[in-house]
Amino acid sequence: MRSISNLFFVNKFYLILFMYNVSRRDYYCLLNMLDAIDKIKRYSFPFTSADDFFSATQAFDASLMNFIIIGEMVEKLSDELITASSTEIDWFKIKSFRNILAHNYFGVDAEEVWQIIHNRLPELETQLKKISN
């Protein structure tokens, strides 16, 4: 038997799908991106500079992996969602950053990662929440 909280979640899920015309697949991709953003924020929180963050290789590498996850989720989003939200979110830059991290073409600049975490990630989180809530 379903609990009331489970029933509420299921009803909220279908309401979101209906109201924003977001497919189930897109919705789960958005949730995965929000989860990855939350992890990046938690991993980077204790540090006060890019150099300190870079020196903590476990936290730095874990954050980079979550940026890669975000880029992978962008690849799975529907063309409809990408087109509808392209004025708010630069999906191309997100995918490009993923490619740089995954393939390490010219090395990873810790200061750039630090700036993205502090200046761009909050904005992305806000936009993703707007789409998924």
How would you briefly describe this protein structure?
The protein has 133 residues and is an all-alpha fold. It contains seven helices and no strands. It has one domain.
Describe the structure in your own words:
The chain has seven helices and no strands. The protein is mainly alpha-helical and 133 residues long. The chain has one domain. Helix 2 runs antiparallel to helix 4 and helix 4 crosses helix 6. The radius of gyration is 16 Å and the shape is globular. About 11% of the residues have low confidence.
* Global mean pLDDT: 87
Shape field: globular
DSSP helix count?
A: 7
**Structural class of the helix and strand makeup?**
mainly alpha
Assembly state:
single chain
Beta-strand percent range: under 5%
Quick one: biggest sheet?
A: none
Total domain modules: 1
Itemize the secondary structure elements and their pairings:
Layout: H1 4-20, H2 24-44, H3 50-55, H4 57-76, H5 79-85, H6 91-103, H7 110-132
Helix pairs in contact: 2-4, 2-7, 4-6
Question: Which structural traits does this protein have?
Answer:
133 residues; mainly alpha
